[in-house]
Amino acid sequence: MKLNEEYKELAWQGLWKNNPGLVQLLGLCPLLAVTSTVTNALGLGIATLFVLICSNATVSLVRQWVPKEVRIPIFVLIIASFVTCVQLLMNAYTFSLYQNLGIFLPLIVTNCAIIGRAEAYASRNPVKQASFDGLMMGLGFLAVLFVLGAVREVLGQGTLFDGANLLLGDWASILRIEVYQLDTQFLLAILPPGAFIAMGFFIALKNVIDDKIAQAIPKKQEKTIERVRVNFDAP
Question: What is the pTM of this model?
Fold first, then answer.
């Protein structure tokens, strides 16, 4: 496979076809628990993205010196080191968001999406491809977090980017959008059961889109074959 085609395939796999949130259904516990607002979703998503890229790159660098018998503990140790770095940074610069994410920030260590990519791809490929794979998988996971957080926040409290200042600083208070006013919060959307329902709709929507794409491919192939026949039969 050519290098450009490999990068395209990695992007397609991470963002859509093999999305860790919608297809592999990995990391669902933090995904469903903290996405009550866009700010929380972005905080966890960016942290996971950082850990994925760094851990994939590091695993790829040391893969030749890691014995197969102890590779999983070594990978977990590498991931835990980067998660600790993220925790310390967030504790120092975004303390309120750090408190909101709570236990789900250190639980990134046990996210099967990160360990899975380290084992399945990073440990068998060069640094550039491994880092790009981590980037695409992380962006795919971040996209699911963002969309789920946006839907739950709008339905639950009628706002968007509420508390953005917790992640981006005081200036980000202007990003808050009040979509509509609610006398009381819609608890079903804010609590975890609402997240389960929303994820079910997202997965169903993705399956419908994939089915339509799969049905469209044979039609395109038939049209291509018909054009070739017409050109071949033409005098």
Answer: 0.89
